[in-house]
Amino acid sequence: MKKLFLLGLVATMLLYFGIAANAEETRVVRVGAFNFFPGIFKNSDGEIQGFYVDALTEIGRRENIRFEYVFGSWSEGLERLKSGEVDLLTSVAHTPEREEFMDYAKTPLLTVWGELYVPLESPIEGIRQIEKKKVALMKGDISGRNFIALVEKFHINCTFVELPGFDDVFKAVAEKKADAGVVSSVFGAARHKDSGLRSTGIVFNPFDIFFTVGKGKHQGLITTLDSYLTTWRQQKDSAYSRARQKWTYGSDDPTTPEWLIDSIVVLGGLMVAASGFIILLRRQVSRATATILQRETHLRESTEMVTLLLNSTAEAIYGLDTQGNCTFCNASCVSMLGYDAPEQLLGKNMHSLIHHHHVDGRPFDGRECSIFKSFQDGTETHMDDEVLWRSDGSSFQAEYWSHPIRHEGEIVGSVVTFLDITTRKQYEKELQDKNAELERFTYTVSHDLKSPLITIKSFAGSIRRDLAAGRSDRLDKDLTRIENSADRMSSLLSDLLELSRIGRIIAPAELVDMNELVNEVLNHLTGLLRENPIQITVQPGLPSLYCDRQRIAEVVQNLVENAVKYMGAQQAPRIMIGMRTEQGRQIFFIQDNGSGIDPRYHTTIFGLFDKLDAGSDGTGIGLALAKRIVEVHGGSLWVESKGSGCGSTFCFTLDRQCLAST
Amino acid sequence: MLKGEPLTVLLVEDNPDHAELVLRNLADSQVANTIMHVEDGEAALDYLHGKGKYADRLAFPMPHLMLLDLRLPKIDGLEVLKEVKEHPDLRALPVVILTTSDAERDVARAYHHHANSYLLKPVNFDSFGKLMKELGFYWLAWNRRPW
């Protein structure tokens, strides 16, 4: 848009240069001059000066026009244009009557308004205070007319004195011939300081002033002026702008009253400062907000991380405040203690909730609790021989650690981590049992295998000596001892081999009808049972179970053989084979009414190579073997007997899985 | 050497062959007049307490030395030792452990229960004989007996 306009301007200028070049003749334009400082005025040397004059001179130089000035009052100027005595007037505002005899340029020369000036010391501040005052104004001036209309509108009574020019108005006010004076804003801004006057701040009716020519005359001139004005008013560095700057003493905008400029400058400054301050504040606020948001994000992320970590650990973790109340707990903690949600723990006293009793059922005083103690002396605690209680009243063996939490050196709580170590404790016990068994085993083996060795070697030595001494009475007996010992060693070795096999080789489990199995065993023992007439009863309807058929048959056979062997002096020997259910456990039993076993030996009889009767047959591996087979099947084997002469009942259970199929 | 005083040894041994070895060798050493042999721990305690069939002190005199095997049927040798050493009337009885076990644990436990001596049965016949001879001399001849 601007480009288009500039192109137009250049074209117009070229056109005029062309005309000027062709004419080769300087036009003379007569200008009606009057005192309208600083636009146009007569200086003390009688010369016509002002920024209008400078602007017109510049245009004249370019357009080959010489402007001649005819000085007079404003109203005289109007009359001279009417009569054709001058060609051009400056500073003309639109009025309907003026439009009848003048043509106006399109671009305003200036925008001006009326402004009321008073002496510096005058009390007049507002329009109301000019009541009954004398106001000077320029004759025929639009601003003067507007002021009169304004005062009438406010119903203010005051007198007016009309003077030929703005100079006269200021002079009258300065000389106290009038209380206030109305001048054009452009004049006032440039001249009030010299006259010792100030603006009242009463400004009114801004209007544009234009170049004018006589109606229908000098149309080319008006167009030319218009085009320069349009361009120059938009350019800060134009001849017009420079001239205006010069004549209004450096004021950027001579059409603006100085107080307004001051105010604007102050306000502007304030606004700039305020804006700067606001921008600064806003920047600081947004920076602080960003930092806070970033921190919040970090915090949220690390909180999420902590929560994730807490809830993904297998260990149960909870926090306590100094009162021992739960401040947080993770998912493992909730589930391990048999609760559904953390809310069931939060805020609760954890000792009375989960740590209230010892494993043996004694109440656990909170003050004795090592977690509580760790609060007091700030030490870390580790325990693995206590129980924790679940929501359903059951307990489990737990290992726990308690770490005090310090804040600025003071203990503010603690974090407790715990594990359910029931399984571990069970394994530990099993391991201990196994170790003990292993120790017993090696001990037994070394002892029991050494015994026959001693016999063999010693009696061989004895025989040698007897032979040397010519003694032969006990040779046969001693040789028998040697043979028996060798046999015993042999059977011990095969028994040991058998025992070690049980632990290592387990045939695939098969479904075994126990009645069938018992009958098979009894058939197998027909020989033994023929020698010892015993009444044997087998309970019908025994369950079927999954097991190593041959091994379980061995157990039954072993126990039946034992019962037959230790029947003692019983006159009506009986053996009963059956099953009873106790606390949901199916217990198989082989009951006899034989010699019975003193409760003191109820454990030792199952030891490897342990025999109650030194003189009895066998190596003493039978019960140890049976026990091992049952244990490999996840069950246990024991004896119930009130003692000598009361008969014995050997019982065994098997793993529930063996029985599941029934 | 012998002052006509009847000296009794109580042998607690479940292995009849080993018992025979002890009997033969002790008899050869000629220090003890009487060797009483029981086969298990329970019988040993009954004998010492004079219970049941051992009530007759003339037939079953209070021994001056007990040779005790550790691994015994019914009541273990260590149990017998413990009961003897805890009994105010019996604890003075010298108890010599005569066993095949050279397990550290057995040795420690035996001494813990105040065994007076711990001897391993020698595998060699000559050694066995020598041990029995010296054992007899030491405990029955050289040693000042409690009763």
Q: What distance lies between the first and last C-alpha atoms of chain B, to the nearest angstrom? A: 18 Å
Number of distinct beta strands of chain B: 5
The low-pLDDT segments of chain A are 13-23
Domains of chain B, number: 1
N-to-C SSE string of chain B, H for helix and E for strand: EHEHEHEHEH
Strand content of chain A: 15-25%
List how many beta strands of chain A DSSP finds. 23
Largest sheet of chain A, described in full?
9 strands, mixed
Strand fraction of chain B equals: 15-25%
The CATH C-level class name of chain B: Alpha Beta
Which geometry of chain B do the CA atoms define? globular
Radius of gyration of chain B: 14 Å
* Bulk shape of chain A: rod-shaped
Major beta-sheet overview of chain B: 5 strands, parallel
Can you tell me about this structure?
The complex is a heterodimer of chains A (662) and B (147). With 662 residues, chain A is of the alpha+beta class. Chain A folds into four domains: 255 residues, 3-Layer(aba) Sandwich (D-Maltodextrin-Binding Protein, domain 2), CATH 3.40.190.290; 105 residues, Beta-Lactamase; 76 residues, Orthogonal Bundle (Helix Hairpins), CATH 1.10.287; 150 residues, 2-Layer Sandwich (Heat Shock Protein 90). Helix content of chain A is 46%, strand content 23%. Chain A is built from 20 helices and 23 strands. In chain B, 44% of the residues are buried. Chain B has a single domain, classed as Rossmann fold, CATH 3.40.50.2300. Chain B has 147 residues and is α/β, with parallel strands linked by helices. In chain B, α1 crosses α5 and α2 packs parallel to α3. Chain B has a five-stranded parallel beta sheet, with helices on both faces. Classes of the chains: A alpha+beta (662), B alpha/beta (147). Chain A: This is histidine kinase.
